[in-house]
Please model this.
Amino acid sequence: MTDTHIVQAYTDAWRQSIESVLELVTPLGEAEWNLPTECPWWSVRDVVSHLIAMESELLGDPRPIHTLPRDLRHVDDEFSRYCEVPVDKRRCHTAPEMTGELEYTILRRARALRDSRNAPTDEVRWPMGPYTRDIPYYQLLRNRVFDVWTHEQDLRRALRKPGNLDSAAALVTRDHLIELLPKAVAKSAGVPAGTTVFFEVTGPVEFMRTVRVDENGRGSADEQISLSPDAEFRTDWETYARLACGRIDPRTADVKVEGDEDLATQILQNFSVTP
Model:
C-alpha cells in the first residue's frame, strides 16, 4: 500500500468510526448522556465532548476559555487539565446541542481532510497540551483513528450496543497497539534483559506476537512463536484493547497466563499505553 493509499485508508476508517459515534448518540435521551463509561471519570457526554474538542482544535478553532471547578479530583496535572477544559465546558449542553455540534464538526473535518494538500510525511501540529509536537501527517491521522475507535468502544459498552470490533478502525488500532507492545513490556513494565513474552489474541481481530527484550533493555516484537517464553498471555481482542487503553483492572481481566506469574503480573499492571 502506498503512502497516499494509507492516508486515504486512515481517513476512511476515521470517518466510519466517528459517524458510528454520531449514529449511536443521536437517539439518546438526556439521562443516557450521563451514563458512565470505562474512560476514567467521563460520561457519555464527556466522551463525545472530547471527540468534538479534538477535531475542532485540528480545524483551527480556538480552545474555550473556561475555569474548571476545584473539586475535579482526576484533574491533577497539565495534561488532564488540557483535556478537561472543553469537556467540562459542555457538561451543561443538551442532547440536541451535543448531536448538532458533533454532526457539524464531522462535516467540517471531513471536508478539511478531503481538501488537504498535506503529503503523508509532511510535519503537522499534533495538539496534545503539554505534549504538543509536530508529527507526520499520516501519523496524526492514525492517532485520530485510534482515539475515535477507542472512544466509540467506550460508548458502545456504556450503552450496551456492541459492534465494530472488526471494523477498519479496529484494524488500525490493532496495528497501533502492536507497535507499542514492545515499549509496554520492555520500558513500562521494565522486565529484565533476555525476557521473552508471548501474546495470543483471539476473536474478531486475531494476532500472535512474541516480544523479546535484548541485552540493552530494548523490546522488539515479531510473529515467530517462542518455544519457551518466560510468560504467555492469551485473551480476546476486546479485552486486549481494554487493557492496552487502561479501561479495565488487570486483576479482573479475562486473561489466561502461563509461566512466571510475578513477571506476568508486572507486565499486566503496566500494560496501558494511553496517557
